[in-house]
Amino acid sequence: MPKNINIISIDAAARFAKKLADAPAKEKTSFSAREVVQMNKDAILQAVNEQGYSFQEIAEWLSEEGAKLSVSTLRSYLRDPKKRIAKTGARAKTKPKGNQAITPQNKDLPEKGLSITNQETDVSPLELEISLQEEKQRERIDAEKLFNKFGGTEGRVV
User: Is residue 128 part of a domain?
Assistant: First the structure.
């Protein structure tokens, strides 16, 4: 059965385009949780990285204001969409070269709150950790789907 397609005349399309162009901007009276997080991204990251607050505390503050978010949702809203790991599961090259590695044994650990990025990829440790956690979650979901597809509990590793 063919789909019912709405046809609009050129004149009607032009009138609609003019109506849109002439429409005054409406004042925004509310924001989505994602918008609030994006507007306050720098302050949130500063609170977590420099002031010692947890993502759980930030999520609770947002909940008190009516934006109920899980910690994982909050983190996903903070992530830069340009730096997301591809859905294929391929990780960005973030391994430091030479003496760039920052390890617990390294005497030159930065003070709390300093932003540490890899010069090669410009991915912060926070963004990397969030991406890795999401990848692990996708792997768990994929494993669960396979388990459910083939059914049974034989050989299941808990």
Answer: yes
Q: Which long-range contacts (CB under 8 A, 24 or more apart) does 127-132 make?
A: 127/79, 127/80, 127/83, 128/92, 128/94, 130/75, 130/76, 130/78, 130/79, 131/79, 131/83, 131/84, 131/85, 131/91, 131/92, 132/91
How many angstroms separate the CA atoms of 156 and 158, rounded?
6
Question: What pLDDT, in 10s, does the model give residues 38-89?
Answer: 999 999 999 999 999 999 999 999 999 998 899 999 999 998 766 555 444 5
Structural domains of the chain, count: 1
For residue 36, the enclosing domain spans 30-150
Q: Which of 89, 96, 88, 87 is nearest to 121 (CA)?
A: 96
